[in-house]
Design goal:
The structure is a homotrimer of 346-residue chains. With 346 residues, chain A is of the alpha/beta class. Helix content of chain A is 17%, strand content 28%. Chains in contact: A-B, A-C, B-C.
Chain lengths: 346, 346, 346
């Protein structure tokens, strides 16, 4: 996936800021990890534990934080946030691949669908009636796009994505393979020993710049839309229940489940395999640790973890205390001993 | 997805029972939530916390429980269970969409497959040899149905479902996109440093009126069938291991995993992201809380939670006690203090 | 799926070792569980709790361990490990089905792809440019294989598998339906309130004899490959993050998540629904219990469980102590009582 295009360090700092130490004409054409980099690569140091690798790297240049600027003699770019800077440089060398426009001969486009010339529809993809694709939308092979779906400009659906009828995706949305958007929510009501299915007549509304991971599911709403706001990033194998609302720029790691009707705030960061039960409110800028089980609403920004979840500090203390129950029992036994001794004396 | 068909309140109570207060000729044509409803909508109140929304609703009519019958002046239907009643009314306005019969020109139907005229096979679907589809079965786009599969009348498979060879589905089964039915169970045996694969020669047997969520997996059995009885409802991203038996009318929420050879009773309700280890027996009418980790058989109806799971009441008490260990330590310190004081006195 | 081919017990022990007691000419043609076996079946006893079923079985023959050799009068094979022996016999009766070679007329094979005559490409499958399939590779219906993918000889991809561009699979790999190999890892960096996507330019490298379950996801690496070594067995709905390294012959049960850049050793056994956070090192031969939440590196072989995970023995003790807090409180109350009594006396 490497491109042959070269940039000189001077050109890179012109784009992204920072300062060059060493030869600003040093050419680089790709990013690489410190231990595997060669002369044509630019690498980076974002964590102290990789300093030893910096010493031995064969990279042509490196990206460093200010405090680390003298750790090497290599040509280098000094900046505030080497990880972020690396991300930008990597994006420069590895721009998203643009699909070739056109509808594959084996794709099926139903009547009334709007597929602009700039869009791409892959082999075996199915585009339902009245679907509207924006400019430059790329629909991967074997995707199934239901009737009336709208997908904003420059969005990309990788192979084998399902979008059910009536769902709406914003611009520059990226959906990875196997994701399912808009299946019925889990709405059932018990009557005389049988579950009655509750029609799920809402849809799914997804904002701009959202990324949705492989095999992730976002259910349609019961009456209104399930909503994923702008800039939300969802990893793989996530379950978003019906009527859930995920606030802008929240990032959720893989295997997490969010049950129906829960509202997640903006700029939250939710660890992998977390579980958030239904009908809760989670405030903005809440951090939820991996595998936390959230059973109550969280009204205050901060970090939370455990099963059931509590604030991270309490969780750490409670865990430590449980693991220290031995010493507590020891103290108890000592007290009982002393007490017996005393009782005999009196 | 709204239909234009109107019903008057009088017609609705004629079908579903209950009593009209206000004008029985009030026409409604769709359901909606209290806060978004307009004149053409009928809404409902199933939980006290939405009473304020009832006061402000612009719905044309509402469905209320007996105790709430005087909370509004709107035309209203009074019934025992407003949520269930709403489910029925919603089903009336939103009947399941019936696929147009016929085999899409891009679908592949192998020889010996039985596809009745009333069935529908979507674009790019694959129907293996000797498959038997019942009347009115709808197979979505890009589904892959293995050799010898049988699917009962009026069942619906949404787009991109896999059913492996030899599995059997009952009548009126609904399977959502991405589900995989009948992949090999995880059967391996170690020999001299290598895992030997154990053939999985059982199938999957699914009863009538079962619903299977998006990207859910049900493995085939090792020797006999994995069994999902009538009326079971499975949410998204659930893993059902080989040889598992799920009793009739049990409902399982998303992200739950049930390991091999476990038997789940009838009418159980299993929360999201629960994990039930293999070779257990779970009684009828057991409720398992979200994210519970069940490591032992459960012989008695009731509610269970925690990691490892115990009965809900014990779990709540143990959690509370752990969180109260501070005060316990405080008491311990106080005792030690008093004891030292005493020891000095004597 | 049964075959009609018969073997006599004498022929079986000639292949797999062990000793026949009873008529060595007894013919059997399939394996079955003790309770369902008939005269043509050979069954097995691998666990004491099924001894009662042995007494009542109608099997034609059984496989028993040495200690159990006299528990029945049926013709029988005596061996060291009846479960493993059964696995071999079952493989004999149920060899993997070989797909008919050839490219289905509805499949799409892009130019430059290498598809040997011995390979099979199913209906609607998509094979990208420069893909290289080894001899006897079977690509199921509706699979999507990205540009430049290499798949080693005798590997099988079931229906609806995605392999992204540039990933490499070894020989005799089995991938179940819905798996997604090589989607972008979850790499994002925050800048001024927006998440910047970090290009994922590594691939996925999968060794020989690996099995990958239904709807499991393995993300591509950020800079280098995500690596799954030889003989690894992955169950369904597993998430393997970017840059993860799974050592040879490790087996991982369903619903488990392994976050980015974690290294798992060889011959580990990881229970279902476990969660291992990112950037950890897990030693060889580590056993992780179902639903364990691993938050720290594990340097030593052994068994671990709990949330957060600790060694199994400690976990069991801590759990027991928490559940015994009642008696601890009782003792505390008794002490306080005795102390008060004493204090009054003095």
């Amino acid at each position: 996936m490497a491109t042959a295009k070269k940039y000189r360090l001077a050109q890179i700092v012109e784009r992204f800021g920072g300062e060059v130490i060493g030869n600003p004409q040093t050419p680089v054409s790709q990013v690489a990890a410190l231990e595997h980099a060669r002369a044509q690569h630019i690498s980076f140091l974002s964590h102290g534990k990789y300093r030893r690798q910096l010493a031995g790297t064969q990279a042509g240049a490196v990206i460093l934080g200010k405090a680390d600027s003298q750790l090497t003699q290599l040509p280098r770019i000094i900046c505030d946030n080497p990880y972020l800077y690396f991300a930008k440089v990597s994006s420069l060398f590895n721009p998203p691949q643009v699909a070739v426009p056109g509808v594959h001969r084996t794709a099926v486009v139903e009547r009334g669908a709007l597929v602009p010339d700039s869009a791409s529809v892959g082999a075996g993809a199915y585009i339902g009636r009245r679907v509207k694709l924006g400019k430059g939308v790329a629909i991967g092979a074997a995707c199934c796009i239901g009737d009336g779906v709208e997908i904003g400009a420059a969005s990309t659906l990788d192979a084998r994505v399902t979008v059910y009828a009536g769902c709406r995706l914003g611009r520059r949305v990226v959906v990875h393979s196997g994701a399912v958007i808009g299946a019925d929510g889990f709405g059932i009501a018990m009557e005389d020993g049988n579950w009655l299915k509750i029609p799920q007549i809402g849809g799914v509304s997804i904002g701009d710049d959202v990324e949705i991971g492989a095999n992730t599911c976002i259910d349609r709403g019961t009456l209104e839309d399930t909503v994923i706001e702008d800039g939300v990033k969802l990893d793989n194998l996530i379950q978003i229940g019906h009527n859930v609302h995920v606030g802008a720029h929240t990032a959720i790691a893989g295997c997490t489940g969010i049950a129906g009707s829960t509202r997640i705030g903006k700029y939250c960061m939710i660890g992998g395999a977390a579980n958030i039960v239904g009908h809760l409110d989670i405030a903005d800028r809440v951090i939820i640790h991996a595998a936390a089980v959230v059973t109550k609403s969280i009204r205050k920004a901060g970090a939370y973890g455990g099963h059931p979840a509590e604030d991270s500090r309490s969780w750490a203390q409670h865990t430590a205390k449980v693991r220290n129950l031995d010493s507590l029992l020891e103290r108890l036994r000592a007290i009982e001993q002393r007490l017996s001794t005393q009782e005999k004396k009196i």
